[in-house]
Amino acid sequence: MTFFAAQFNRSRIAIACLVWLLFIASQHEAVFWLDWWRKNQSWLILSISLWFTVLALIKDRAFLSIHAVSRIIYFILCAGVSFYWLKFNVEIVSFVSQVNLLIELKEYFPVIFPSAVFGFLLLLLSLKSKDLTVAVLFTSSVIWQLYSSNTLALSAEVICVMVALIYLLVVCIESYFLAYRDDLTGLPTRRALKQLSLSLSRRYTVAMIDIDHFKKFNDTYGHDIGDQVLKLVATKLANIKGGGRVFRYGGEEFTAVFPRKNTEVCLPYLESLRKDVASYDMVIRDASRVGKKFRKAHKSQSYKTVNVTISIGIAQKSSKQHFDQVLKHADLALYRAKKRGRNNVSE
Q1: What is the tens place of the pLDDT at every residue in 165-191?
Q2: Which of 75, 147, 205, 322 could tie 258 with a disulfide, CB 3.0–4.6 Å?
Q3: Which is catalytic among the residues 91, 107, 252, 264?
Q4: Is 139 helix (H, G, I), strand (E, B) or coil?
């Protein structure tokens, strides 16, 4: 599983797999470090709980690269922080012992309390992030803490198999999204469109959508603003009505497919989409503005409002036509929409 995750550039999951591999190996009497493992169990519980949290905060890099050095340093720091916490938390425990309300909790402060804090931080990160790896690291941390505290009544082998299956599922899901989802807009890619075309029925409608004057917009405001425009249009397209499914075809072009629909049914939805995009006021802020004082002093000059329009070509599948032919007819209709002055829908 470690090599599988590393192959798909999921180094954090690969590292987590190594942690679990060492853990399962340490459960056998044959390993020479078993006595050391048992004597330092509190330190190991705390160190690995912190390590799962650190893994959630760093990014996936190539498993065998220069970044491996920084990960080793992070791991050493986790081990060092855990060691010094266990060594110097005596004052905190003694303070807790003097408070009647907390005296029964003093045994939890050396290990369980900081581990719970790390778990809570991981929970917040997993709720905030859309990264499935963060969520699976939170799950790993919970399983690790439950097993270490003898709360989880499962054998080490069963736990490792369960964790490996979760990791495998996450790597497969993320690899799927990497192949079939556009990273910038979040829409399915042309590859996903081709996949859909294999399962379409005999009746469907295809629309080709293009952002008007996008190259000029890019040259005027820069590629960062151009990316914002693509995201904006993609967000509007993703909310299309009528059962349409939208894909990023390439560049500033998008494709919408309406299964089991004809052009008459689809036209009102596409017109509504075109008007929605055209009526949206996009605010472009001055990149040179710095600080609140500057914004207050140059409020009227610090931003401007622009509108983006789209042109749409639509085509319906006829008998004996393949998907590529319908797509070509929709592209020709898009060309006619451009010739008619843009910001319109053409059949």
Answers
A1: 888 888 888 777 777 888 888 888 888
A2: 205
A3: 252
A4: helix
